[in-house]
Protein: Glycerol-3-phosphate dehydrogenase [NAD(P)+]
Organism: Planobispora takensis
Amino acid sequence: MTKAAVFGTGSWGTTFAMLLAGAGTETILWGRRAEVVEAIDRRHVNPDYLPDTVLPDTLRATTDPAEALDGADFVVLAVPSQTLRGNLTAWKPHLPPEAVLVSLMKGIELGTTKRMSEVICEVAEVPQERVAVVSGPNLVGEIVLGQPAATVVACPDERVAERLQEACHLPWFRAYTNPDVVGVELGGAVKNVIALAVGVAAGMGLGDNVGAMLMTRGLAEISRLGAALGADPHTFAGLAGMGDLVATCTSPLSRNRTFGENLGKGMTLEEVIAATKQTAEGVKSCESVLELARKHDVEMPITEVVVAVVHDGMPPGEAGMLLMSRSPKPERYGV
Ligand SMILES: NC(=O)C1=CN([C@@H]2O[C@H](COP(=O)(O)OP(=O)(O)OC[C@H]3O[C@@H](n4cnc5c(N)ncnc54)[C@H](O)[C@@H]3O)[C@@H](O)[C@H]2O)C=CC1
Ligand SMILES: O=C(CO)COP(=O)(O)O
């Protein structure tokens, strides 16, 4: 029987573990906090993140990384992106030599501008063929209700992608494979930044034309960065590109959109951070995405104003003026 160890008992780690267990994969969760782990293991509930969801009886949990990793075929990583390097360094001595490492994370590392799969390869010292990425329009609040959804499993080794696809595929959760890890990861990380922008606009009371403009021009930014980094342009028209962009930018369930909306309504950054209980990856990753874009000489004007609003205190109205007063261009400028 295929065995998976899922690291991170937050909303997506717990939900993806449920999907794996539901698909017949023997699954164990690792968490930091004993009380959460105990509640999952004994009472089949995650009181902090999914209090209304009954978890499968077969889903186990532990605080011991060695126990979680013992015999694991898949090691699924679902901690906040900026904590991955430190955590994985600690877990590395226990990693089974043949295990496939799977990233569920949608961020870019601050300081290094590395994608999560790059951090995994570097820290765990494994080749790209042993690292997979799962990304798509996968809002947890809908998946835990059993509503239909689809995702993308990306890995350069097609057989590894197919094994992981099989390990999480359910009648109501479709997993598609794609060899383009770069595109799938960029789609997931940058859509969070665009969702912050769409949220700010919504919070300011602006309408659907503005939302559509930001999403579409945001997709142009993602595609330009992807082209510079060697991604397959088709990926951005798929679930991990446009699909996740639309879901995150339009859903009230999105933490990134909600974060932006609160800023747009006039809350201070400190107030918004205090009101945000879960990980909104775009808040930190907007800076690393912008740095990555600058390294590759890619223009990302929406990302620039998101960084200015979220980190440098630029008023949202001024950010909007800056975007609207850019010089007129052909639509496919810079692509
Ligand atoms: N929630 C969602 O709808 C989806 C989330 N994702 C991505 O999955 C990743 C994880 O997000 P969520 O589970 O939603 O976040 P979350 O905020 O719900 O949970 C984060 C988990 O990480 C733990 N954690 C926090 N700091 C830590 C540290 N320093 N070391 C170890 N563990 C730590 C928390 O205790 C919690 O268990 C993110 O990159 C997110 O973008 C992807 C798809 C869907
Ligand atoms: O990635 C997600 C949906 O696919 C979740 O988005 P948020 O992190 O903004 O909630």
Summary: The radius of gyration is 19 Å. DSSP finds 15 helices and eight strands in the chain. The first helix runs from residue 11 to 22. The domain at 3-181 is CATH 3.40.50.720 (Rossmann fold).
